Amino acid sequence: MSNEAATATTAAEAAPAPDQIPHGIGASLQPADARAKTEGTFPYAADLWAEGLLWAAVLRSPHPHARIKSIDTTHAREMPGVRAVVTHEDVPGSPLLGRGKADRPVFASEVVRHHGEPIAAVAADHPDTARLAAAAVIVEYETLDPVTDPEQAFEAEPLHPDGNLIRHIPLRHGDPDAAGDIVVEGLYRIGRQDPAPIGAEAGLAVPRPDGGVELYLASTDPHTDRDRAAACYGLEPERVKVVVTGVPGATADREDQGFQLPLGLLALKTGCPVKLTATREESFLGHTHRHPTLLRYRHHADAEGKLVKVEAQILLDAGAYADTSAEALAAAVGFACGPYVVPNAFIEGWAVRTNNPPSGHVRGEGAMQVCAAYEAQMDKLAKKLGVDPAELRLRNALATGDVLPTGQTVTCPAPVAELLQAVRDYPLPALPKDTPEDEWLLPGGPEGAGEPGAVRRGVGYGLGMVHMLGAEGADEVSTATVKVHDGVATVLCAAVETGQGFTTLARQIVQDTLGIDEVHVAPVDTDQPPAGAGCRGRHTWVSGGAVERAAKMVRTQLLQPLAHKFGMSTELLQITDGKITSYDGVLSTTVTEAMDGKELWATAQCRPHPTEPLDDAGQGDAFVGMSFCAIRAVVDVDIELGSVRVVELALAQDVGRVLNPAQLQARIEAGVTQGVGIALTENLRSARGLIRHPDLTGYSLPTALDAPDIQIVKLVEERDVVAPFGAKAVSAVPVVTSPAAIASAVRSATGRPVNRLPIRPQAAVVNAQ
Asked: The whole model's pTM is what?
């Protein structure tokens, strides 16, 4: 038999029969939208159309800091095809917006505070006309000196009526006079990462007969977006509806409200549908980025390497407006010591306004920046003590029952030592052969300029942690409805599918609970009860929990008549593969027969246990739960050119429970690859507040050629008892951990300190002596 025939036979034998297709919790269920996305029929916002459509364009400031002396829209309004021009004078409601704090103008009126801030918006009958009209708006500026150094923001003139300081957290834990035998210090800088959504940011606004408006957006938090839009338009929330279109993935706040809100204003003013598709440059200028951060650390340890005290100063550059900077700072300060036992900690954290591009929510915000710093400190301690870096980390690893520097006891599973041991003991990859055929293995890729003799291999480690859900008293609640009729179940929940797999999980939950194979998840809009934003594992935990509770309520409705008829409790009945059976085998029927044509439905909520804000000393039970990860990085560095190739990343992670193996693996690999970009290439550069090269040629994203070999060495399934299904969020903590591990490996290869991310080539060059 030929190899081809053998392969075909094996594939045929492996293909499951239709009634054996995996379903339910623990199965690798295929996403419902997979076919539509691969065939190009998935309904993204950029594809939307409406009768009588107008096109919008936004005029943005060319200056990072300026006083607006006048705005003249006369020429723009008189252009043929222009239907409306709006500025700050046309905002009927609240002139301010913002995700965490409403301090950002819809349109700048008196002062411009960052490059790309919206000034005016235009609606016209053609997109080119709209862009030309926006450019025809004449704005007279008086340029001002921008404040771009966050350290200078403390002494600079206020950039905002609320001042330059957004938040200060002074964390005090333990004895301030404690000192160790060994002390290491470091200064670290983390660059500005852009979420760089691959799909275009786009939206469509359609006026309603009642004087309201419908917004079709790739929103990740539709109810919050609706409420802000309603406040801006001076309307009741009931007269504004947000319909979520297909979201092409999101690792941050997906859409910039700086163009969401002008869309609705233009639709209300013209009485026509208005659409805007942002260019890549507009995306870079408008939406928020990861906070650039300056970190100063001092670690104290005893002669055995046990940590005695950590002192740190953390400064987040929030850009022009507050957005979610207060929340990011809480995460940075709370996790400033990492997943290590630290009896004494004294952390000062600040978030300040500057005239730099705006910062906000990006996956792992706050935790990623401090992870890079505290792991560099652990490498310094290991080197000074002459101890293996992995061993030093093991001596200090956090475990369940230990206390964080915030005073919060870790009650969730925290198998940090187990994770680190797993990656440490995993076999190292083979060394590349020093032959011409394998030159593509050199740093720099195929036909790289490097020489094999200049390549050094390094091995480094990273331990990271993130919090799940909101923090500091955030009210996390989600509502879901499950309906069953004619053997088909429908889930209604306003949890947005951003690529995290919620719609697949919802189907699995209902399949598992009710034994129904055909499950549909309804499209999301704000007519449904709120479910919160799609970040920090919220929908896996809170929305998934709401779906589970609703499905169990329907299950009880289904089983109660049967239990009553046979004189037993519903707990003695089980549903498996669409069949209802009793413990003693007396009852056996199908779910369809038991339904008997009825329609059953139930609505339920899920709300995790409450948290509390950090107090004046940075103390408090601020986090619902935590997730941990260990990564061992292997890199090859050309010490003459400074080029770095990530050979392998071996990862171990605590996941609570694996709900969908294929989906979980994909999420972890995606998170790790995003971390590679943070470590080596991604840095949105600016000069005196002006973004340089706001495009994908000037901003380098990792591609498939840059993705390393990712080995998922171990997944620890120790269920978190307070989480539905016991599962933890999985995608953020690899993003947090992998940059630190890669930097550690580059330090191992070069002996250089590597105190900045992304790693610049000159930081990896070893000068010949």
From this structure: 0.93
Q: Which of 78, 59, 81, 75 is nearest to 127 (CA)?
A: 81
> Are 201 and 56 spatial neighbours (Cβ–Cβ below 8 Å)?
no
Q: Are 285 and 321 in contact (CB under 8 A)?
A: no
**Is residue 316 within 8 Å of 283, Cβ to Cβ?**
no
Q: Which of helix, strand or coil describes residue 589? A: strand
Read off the pLDDT of residues 492-544 as tens digits, 9 standing for 90 and up.
999 998 878 889 999 999 998 888 888 999 999 999 999 988 777 788 889 99
412-448 pLDDT tens trace: 999 999 999 999 999 999 886 655 555 557 786 655 5
Q: What angle do CA 190, 667, 672 make, to 5 degrees?
A: 35
Buried b (16+ CB within 10 A) or exposed e, 480-500: bbbbbeeeebbbbbbbbbbbb
Helix or strand (DSSP H, E) at 265: helix 257-270
Residue identified by tokens 């779910």 is: 591
DSSP state of 264: H
Burial class (CB in 10 A: 0-12, 13-18, 19+), 703: exposed
Angle, nearest 10°, between helix axes 544-565 and 502-514?
10
Please report the sign of the dihedral spanned by the C-alpha atoms of residue 352, residue 354, residue 358, residue 364: negative
Strands ordered across the beta sheet of 588-590 = 573-576, 579-582, 588-590
Burial class (CB in 10 A: 0-12, 13-18, 19+), 434: exposed
Per-position b or e across 335-355, b if 16+ CB within 10 A of its CB: bbbbbbbbebbbbbbbbbbbb
Query: Which of 483, 105, 472, 125 minimizes the C-alpha distance to 261?
Result: 105
| One-letter identity of residue 29 | L
Cα 187-362-536 angle, rounded to 5 deg = 115
Any residues with CB less than 8 A from the CB of 262 and at least 6 apart, and which?
A: 56, 58, 86, 106, 107, 118, 121, 276
In three-state secondary structure terms, 248 is coil
Q: What is the chain's length? A: 769
DSSP 471-516: ETT----EEEEEEEETTEEEEEE----SSS-HHHHHHHHHHHHH--
Q: Which residue has the tokens 């901003």?
A: 699
